[in-house]
Structure to design on (604 residues):
């Protein structure tokens, strides 16, 4: 009997071995070692000379927090969060819209999801053309008499519009994703509730606010937090649209771009210690939000059952 | 269940019918106007890119992609841009790189997840709950600081700038293991006991019983991984910083665009080539996408 238990244990770990080795090497070790680097001084020159990282305590954190570029990054990341409420309200509205049974609805649902499976590289190519000075956006705005053609500009090269333009692309790539999540939530609302409300004379608007929104609260909470964390971690969009510069005039420089540029983006002043410290600060915010997510959704479930 | 709920309850339908006809017509028109507006927003970039890709740029002098509305409705259609981008820009090479990287990643993810999930679902051994907890905890780990060290690790292993270097760090995921474990848990353990009594080894049980019965989950995981890897931009561009030759299309397409002599018609053709595999997979497997997402919420 004991021998059999030992055999089972050995077989179990043999099956688990590939996953545990790969995760240990490429997930746990880098996270722990990366956090450690945040407390050291380790430049690209040290790396080339095979020097070990030097322990400097909290110096990097002071340096990062005092760096105007990081402060700009944090400010822009906060501005980027504005995409969250817009994205969530729109996705919920679209989900309600496509939850009706009408001809061709399957086609609409599917097509709204297609941007979600588009790579950021393709999105960058296509939207870059749209945002050009002579691009489709300016052309349509002129058609609607919203802009003066002589004063037109490239949306990505203007420091007042670049961040908003990139946020629009995040919105475009995201709304189908959240729409499907909301759709799943909507379809789990018991039909009898809506029927009863209708019989009691509730209009569509009342049904939405009194039944749909309260019952969808856990989904709304989950989606909002998912999209908040995604907004804080946004990096690929900035890199592909600005070539990693965060321009024009640092107007699209986000906190995570700082980590990227301090590690690989700009080889000349790469310092893995500074990057690690900045990464740790951002990760802590993300971690706090994930915790909040778990906490709030658990609270919700407890309340309902 | 979902199908039933999607239909309008009879009472509501009756309430609708009692409304005056002009209101029903108005509601219908408004619904479709909104649906079409969102449709245009969602697919316009693709349609415009497709239109540019098939435009015959040799017809008429100096056709511009910014000449609206002509560039949305090309007068002369050709497939030359596709041939050109494949020949001149060696798109075939990048396409093959994408195929190899995606193929290895999907195979690796399926193998690692299918193996690791089995003991977590159906074996009793010391450390099981701890192992599962550790794997699931990677979902909330701060990955921002991981990629710096991963590049250093790959360099030390001599894998930086190789296919394996791109693939290996991405194949063991909590998502994959979790998904497969859920699928195995749904399989009754009496089946396994019967197989054991017949003298089957654990590997045989996994291969002959568990995998065939969890095919839907395997397929879904494969599709998710395929689309994610095919589209991945950031990690391959970092892991292949030292070796341009192995770049996948998702990274190469932006490099093409960055070249000073780039031709928008060719870039558009490249974009279409890159999109086709994902769109084909997407349309064949829509159900898996939508269900997978719904499962993520209902948990």
């Amino acid at each position: 009997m004991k021998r059999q238990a030992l055999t089972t244990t050995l077989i179990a770990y043999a099956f688990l071995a590939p996953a545990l080795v790969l995760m240990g090497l490429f997930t746990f070790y880098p996270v722990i070692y990366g956090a450690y680097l945040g407390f050291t001084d380790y430049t690209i020159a040290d790396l080339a000379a095979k020097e070990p990282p030097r322990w400097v305590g909290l110096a990097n954190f002071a340096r990062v927090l005092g760096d105007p570029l990081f402060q700009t990054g944090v400010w822009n990341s906060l501005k980027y969060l504005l995409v969250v409420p817009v994205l969530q309200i729109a996705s919920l509205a679209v989900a309600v819209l496509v939850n009706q049974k009408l001809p061709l609805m399957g086609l609409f649902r599917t097509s709204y999801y297609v941007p979600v499976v588009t790579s950021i590289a393709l999105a960058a190519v296509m939207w870059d053309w749209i945002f050009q000075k002579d691009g489709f956006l300016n052309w349509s705005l002129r058609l609607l008499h919203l802009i003066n053609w002589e004063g037109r500009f490239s949306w990505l090269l203007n420091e007042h519009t670049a961040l908003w333009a990139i946020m629009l692309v995040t919105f475009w790539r995201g709304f189908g994703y959240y729409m499907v999540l909301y759709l799943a939530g909507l379809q789990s609302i018991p039909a009898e509730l809506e029927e009863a409300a209708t019989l009691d004379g509730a209009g569509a608007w009342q049904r939405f606010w009194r039944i749909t929104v309260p019952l969808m609260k856990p989904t709304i909470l989950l989606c909002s937090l998912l999209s908040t964390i995604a907004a804080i971690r946004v990096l690929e969009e900035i890199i592909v649209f600005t070539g990693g510069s965060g321009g024009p005039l640092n107007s699209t420089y986000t906190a995570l771009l700082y980590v990227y540029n301090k590690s690989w983006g700009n080889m000349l002043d790469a310092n893995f210690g500074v990057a690690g410290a900045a990464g740790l600060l951002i990760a802590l915010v993300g971690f706090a939000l994930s915790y909040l997510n778990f906490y709030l959704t658990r609270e919700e479930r407890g309340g309902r059952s | 269940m979902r199908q039933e709920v999607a239909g309008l309850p009879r009472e509501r339908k009756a309430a609708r019918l009692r409304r005056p006809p002009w209101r029903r017509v108005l509601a219908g028109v408004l619904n479709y106007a909104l649906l079409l507006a969102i449709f245009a927003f969602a697919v316009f970039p693709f349609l415009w890119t497709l239109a540019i890709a098939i435009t015959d740029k040799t017809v008429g002098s100096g056709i511009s992609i910014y000449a609206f509305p002509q560039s949305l409705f090309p007068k002369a259609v050709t497939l030359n841009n596709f041939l050109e981008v494949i020949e001149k820009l060696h798109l075939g090479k990048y396409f093959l790189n994408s195929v190899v990287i995606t193929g290895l990643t999907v195979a690796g993810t399926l193998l690692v997840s299918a193996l690791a999930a089995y003991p977590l679902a159906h074996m009793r051994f010391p450390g099981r709950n701890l192992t599962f907890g550790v794997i699931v905890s990677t979902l909330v780990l701060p990955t921002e600081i991981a990629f710096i060290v991963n590049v250093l690790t790959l360099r030390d292993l001599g894998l930086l700038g190789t296919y394996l270097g791109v693939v290996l760090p991405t194949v063991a995921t909590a998502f994959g293991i979790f998904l497969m474990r859920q699928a195995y848990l749904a399989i009754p353990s009496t089946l396994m006991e019967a197989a054991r009594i017949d003298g089957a080894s654990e590997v045989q049980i996994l291969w002959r019983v568990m995998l065939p019965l969890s095919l839907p989950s395997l397929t879904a995981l494969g599709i998710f991984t395929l689309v994610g890897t095919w589209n991945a931009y950031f990690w391959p561009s970092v892991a292949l910083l030292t070796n341009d030759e192995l770049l996948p299309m998702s990274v190469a397409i932006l490099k093409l665009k960055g070249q000073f002599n780039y031709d928008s018609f060719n870039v558009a053709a490249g974009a279409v080539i890159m999109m086709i595999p994902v769109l084909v997979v997407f349309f064949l497997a829509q159900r898996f996408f939508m269900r997978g997402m719904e499962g993520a919420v209902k948990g």
